[in-house]
């Protein structure tokens, strides 16, 4: 939706200047506020406290920025002939080759390019992940394809969740096809998917080298934290030095015992993403997935209060990937993390081999020496890093910058949201 009574960003800037000229502070609060139209703000501005007014104007400016970015999709439709979801975009590149952008026909079509990308770029994923990424979204992966070959050479996904929140996922162009303007057009096609859906919040995790590029495209970095990559040796190589047990009244259970709707509700409360197509029996049935939860046995199993902490683990090229990890407190976070770490054994790794993966074919003794545990820790929770460090994890020196279109995070990930004391690790930087 747009701003009633605002024709362009200059109008918002004028409102900002005229309404804040008598305030003594220039720093705007970061807390989320319901966006008000200019028509609503102007008549009441003299009755509002300055701090509250700054909050509303900041929200209006950010919403205008977001709206302007999404409106750019109209230019894409006009130039490349995209008129409805699922139709092809045919376009020239800067080199004269004709390309098309279209949704993937199947997971198998994407897999021919996606898995080699993951292995060559060292993105440390599982060959099982692609079906999960595509299956949890209302939209499909978009492919850029030279008409001369018909082979995909790049992809991106506008990951759209049940509650019209979204994530820019898996944006990769083959090196031989970069520098032709294709990435720019592919990214705009992704933004067009969000625009058609009416997606309210759009985020992404950017490496430092790409942050400026995303800023030019309307994304603003969260000031509340980074996604920090940690790793650790397998416990078979370096045993755990601590023993964590649930406190009185709490019980450690297999993640498969937790009803899917409770996982969906917990994930939503921590991230703002409603992902009923992610937390499913199909995900739990993946041969590489396992996990644990701490539950309050005094609470009904149907109530959110029953679930105290939980995490899942899945295979990746270098070993095991942990996430998410949500918990009410540090102790319950440590319990599920330690339990999951103990189950990450060389033998279990061999039970879920990945395609074209040397580690999967190695003897268990080699796996014990070479494999690593990996996790993406949310530093916006001031207690999160310590939980992992206490169990022997170390930073690897790679951070992701969490960014939001127009500077608008979900309320759950904004200042004061549950993410900042309950989210210890994200599910996956690729899809939020």
UniProtKB/TrEMBL annotation:
The lineage of its organism: Eukaryota, Fungi, Dikarya, Ascomycota, Pezizomycotina. This is Uncharacterized protein. It comes from Zalaria obscura.
């Amino acid at each position: 939706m747009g701003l009633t009574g605002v024709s362009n960003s200059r109008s918002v800037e004028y409102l900002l200047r005229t309404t804040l000229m008598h305030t003594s502070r220039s720093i705007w609060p970061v807390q989320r506020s319901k966006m008000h139209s200019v028509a609503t703000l102007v008549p009441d501005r003299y009755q509002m406290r300055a701090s509250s007014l700054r909050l509303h104007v900041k929200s209006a400016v950010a919403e205008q920025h977001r709206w302007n970015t999404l409106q750019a999709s109209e230019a894409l439709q006009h130039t490349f002939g995209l008129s409805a979801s699922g139709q092809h975009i045919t376009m020239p590149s800067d080199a004269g080759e004709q390309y098309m952008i279209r949704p993937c026909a199947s997971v198998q079509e994407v897999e021919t390019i996606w898995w080699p990308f993951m292995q060559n770029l060292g993105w440390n994923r599982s060959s099982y992940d692609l079906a999960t990424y595509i299956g949890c979204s209302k939209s499909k992966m978009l492919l850029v394809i030279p008409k001369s070959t018909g082979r995909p050479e790049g992809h991106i996904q506008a990951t759209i969740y049940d509650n019209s929140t979204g994530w820019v996922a898996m944006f990769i162009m083959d090196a031989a096809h970069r520098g032709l303007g294709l990435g720019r057009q592919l990214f705009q096609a992704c933004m067009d998917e969000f625009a058609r859906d009416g997606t309210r919040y759009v985020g992404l995790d950017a490496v430092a080298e790409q942050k400026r590029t995303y800023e030019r495209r309307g994304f603003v970095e969260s000031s509340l934290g980074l996604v920090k990559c940690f790793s650790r040796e397998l416990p078979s190589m370096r045993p755990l030095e601590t023993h964590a047990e649930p406190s009185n009244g709490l019980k450690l259970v297999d993640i498969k015992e937790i009803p899917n709707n409770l996982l969906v509700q917990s994930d939503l409360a921590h991230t703002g993403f409603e992902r009923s197509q992610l937390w499913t029996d199909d995900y739990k049935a993946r041969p590489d997935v396992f996990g644990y939860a701490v539950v309050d046995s005094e609470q009904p199993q149907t109530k959110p209060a029953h679930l105290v902490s939980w995490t899942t683990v899945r295979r990746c090229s270098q070993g095991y990937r942990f996430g998410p990890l949500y918990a009410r407190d540090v102790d319950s976070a440590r319990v599920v993390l330690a339990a999951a770490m103990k189950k990450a054994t060389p033998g279990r790794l061999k039970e879920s081999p990945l395609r074209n993966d040397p580690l999967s074919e190695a003897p268990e003794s080699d796996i014990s020496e070479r494999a690593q545990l990996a996790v993406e820790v949310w530093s916006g929770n001031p207690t999160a890093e310590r939980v992992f460090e206490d169990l022997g994890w170390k930073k690897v020196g790679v951070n992701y910058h969490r960014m939001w279109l127009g500077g608008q995070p979900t309320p759950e990930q904004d200042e004061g949201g549950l993410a900042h004391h309950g989210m210890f690790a994200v599910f996956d930087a690729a899809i939020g």
